[in-house]
Design goal:
The protein is of the alpha+beta class and about 90 residues long. It is built from 2 helices and 4 strands. The protein has a domain of about 60 residues: 2-Layer Sandwich (Alpha-Beta Plaits), CATH 3.30.70.20. The strands form 2 sheets. It has a two-stranded antiparallel ribbon. Strands 2-3 form a two-stranded antiparallel sheet. The radius of gyration is 17 Å and the shape is elongated. Bound molecules: iron/sulfur cluster (SF4) (2 copies).
């Protein structure tokens, strides 16, 4: 296995949420539970005739609450930047 980073891997620079509008049933659960209120229901319709949820584009903390609340597998993907390793205490 190579230790060189794969340039095809997405670079996660910050928390982000992606909603697949065609997988969404517009149940509104995610918009209700999002603690920062950054999700809303779109005025447009998807191919199933539902108004899908959408991200306003900023303010997501990557908490994942919407992911766990959503009853549609694959409708919501949450991205969190990797945690920075904790600094080890220096021995005195
Ligand atoms: S991950 Fe958290 S902050 Fe981001 S949209 Fe989902 S519920 Fe809201
Ligand atoms: S919880 Fe899932 S199905 Fe319901 S509106 Fe949000 S993304 Fe759509």
């Amino acid at each position: 296995m190579s230790s060189t980073p794969d340039t095809k891997d997405p670079v996660i620079v910050g928390p982000d949420v992606i909603i697949d509008p065609e997988m969404c049933k517009g149940c509104n659960l995610c918009t209700y539970v999002c603690p920062t209120g950054v999700l809303l229901i779109s005025e447009s319709l998807n191919h199933l005739g539902f108004h899908p949820a959408e991200y306003t584009g900023e303010g997501c903390t990557g908490c994942g609450v919407c992911f766990y609340a959503c009853p549609e597998p694959g409708a919501i993907t949450v991205y969190k930047p990797p945690r920075k390793p904790k600094k080890q205490k220096e021995e005195v």
